[in-house]
Amino acid sequence: MEFMSAPWWSALAAIILIDLVLAGDNAIVIALAARNLPKHLQKPAIIWGTVGAIVVRTLMTLVVVWLLKIPGLMLLGGLGLLWIAYNLISDSGDGEDEHGVGATTFWGAMKTIIIADALMGIDNVLGVAGAAHGAMDLVVIGLLVSVPIVVFGSTMVLKLVERYPIIIQGGAAVLAWTAASMIAGEPLLANLFGPREAPEKLWRWALAAVCVAGVLGVAWLRKRQMASAKAASGVSDDD
Question: N or C: which end of the chain has fewer CB within 10 A?
Fold first, then answer.
């Protein structure tokens, strides 16, 4: 593709649009992972988490052709993202696990952000690589454009989460929806969910509903169990 030609600009516009659409998921997971950190560590976590995610995504872009040959990749990525979404929403923020998914330390948050973004980045990499038609300059520009989008989006989401905690549930639902989209896009499951070109919408909507309801429901049950256990412990201590 000739540099600065009409097709080049058209492909760049498509890549920027892909970044705008998919960066929302990245912004949400970064904000949720950083929400339990001390105030002075939240901004560095957002910045370095974004940098780490971009580095991982760059490496994935370089081997995208190889990635496409891995059977079950989208399925495993979707299941992994469901697990992260569940842990992010069920985390009580009490610091019981400093390096787990709901970490309260800088490096614990970094681990969560980079793993989650690597899983979500599969769809992003495939979309950008397809829109670029093999033009690496467009791929690089697309990665650079995504940096300010994710940093700004994460900062905004984090501020909203602090003011309106209910957004945490909404963010987890978005991540679960993304996970369902990845699972439905797995070529091994094309007989059930259809290929990307001709998706079976009913089954895909059903899967999305199950994933969202499952993540929110199981997290709610876990929080109730933890609250009951703490209440019981408090009663026994008084006795």
Answer: C
What sign for the dihedral angle of Cα 149, 151, 152, 156? positive
Residue closest to 127 by CA, chosen among 17, 239, 229, 235: 17
Give the Cα separation of 158 and 168 in Å (integer). 10
Rounded to whole angstroms, the Cα distance separating 149 from 142 reads 11
Per residue of the chain (239 residues), what is the pLDDT tens digit?
566 777 777 777 777 766 666 666 777 778 888 887 888 888 888 888 888 877 877 777 777 657 666 788 778 878 888 888 888 777 644 444 444 444 567 888 888 888 877 777 666 666 666 666 667 777 777 777 777 777 777 788 788 877 887 888 887 888 888 888 888 888 888 888 988 778 888 999 999 999 999 999 998 888 888 878 777 776 444 54
CA distance 107 to 111: 6
Token reading at 178: 């993304």
Residue 164: partners with Cβ closer than 8 Å, 6 or more residues away: none
Residue that the structure tokens 């390096």 belong to = 99
C-alpha–C-alpha distance, residues 20 and 55, integer Å = 18
Instruction: For residue 44, give both structure tokens.
Output: 């560095």
64-81 b/e (C-beta count within 10 Å ≥ 16 → b): beebeeeeebbbbbbebb
CA 192 to centroid of chain Cα atoms: 24
Residue 121 and residue 115: Cα distance in Å, rounded?
10
The two three-digit tokens of residue 175, written as one number: 């991540």
**Overall pTM surpassing 0.70 (yes/no):** no
